[in-house]
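Entries read chain and fold; for instance:
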Amino acid sequence: MSVVHKALQIRLPPLPSIKDVIRLYKLRALRELSQNFLLEPRLIDKIVRAAGNIQNNIVCEVGPGPGGITRSIIQQAPRKVILVEKDPRFLPTLELLGDACKDKVDIDIITGDILHTDVAHFIPPDVKVGWNDPPPPVNLIGNLPFSVSTILMIRWLEAISRQEGVWSFGRARMTLTFQKEVAERMSAPILHKQRCRLSVMCQNWCNVKYKFDIPGSAFLPKPDVDVGVVTLTPLKQPVIKLPFKLIEKVVRQIFSMRQKYSIRGAQTLFPEDIREEMALKMYNIADLDPVTRPYQITNSEFGRLCEAYKAIITEHPDLENYDYRAPKKKVITENVDEVIM
């Protein structure tokens, strides 16, 4: 007979509600930091449950703010919680939580920008596992500010590709909130209206699951859009086994003209005078129809395009550093009237 083990839960001492904490500490969400406070305990618990069983795990929460999600994480009895918060106004509320559970859960509070913080320094080395092993007992959880979510996701994908930072401990899982449109992009399959560069990049390195929506009305202040909760688990092997920068460059340029034939975007990978010739060569090597639209291309087909691009820049190394976005060099001519004869 199978025995179902109920997850251990930590009961925190009586604390003021998050609404009361916000009022007591005179906290307000700052628009310039894209802050939105999630106040509904039922939805907060749902986010944390989406991460799976985090008992005895190391949990890093990004942007805990007043600590609503933090409370729910602590109640699931993790081994350690690492909080990375950019806004020092929230330190008293987070320290209040730290004091409330100091004998039960180890808590590190880091005041800093997650874009410039290496969380790996705070993770105990004994949790490290091999990349091909099941994911380690390490979770990233966060209600991400809209303004940094896409930038942060791309940076984390690059870290995953190199097995660096948090991912030097193995295939650590993420449970994150995004603007609904961004969440849809991350999980969008081919032909989906939201299919874009972010779709290909996320799905190349991770198993992406769109879990559920949270209405904007659940946040304070209410954002103009709803929010999507996404879980990402790094894959043992990426679909495209090439350097991150090369893949990102090819995918970005092809999607730069999303509604046009995909070869139009691919042409911008090359200087103007050889653009059409080289892009056609790239598509011939990849055995892909040039009139395919970017959102119709599968990840494995993008892999063939990336391999083809790599073959071309290996043959013509001077093309590798070509950047379509770089400012064009101006040709300076002398003013004829000022030339001394």
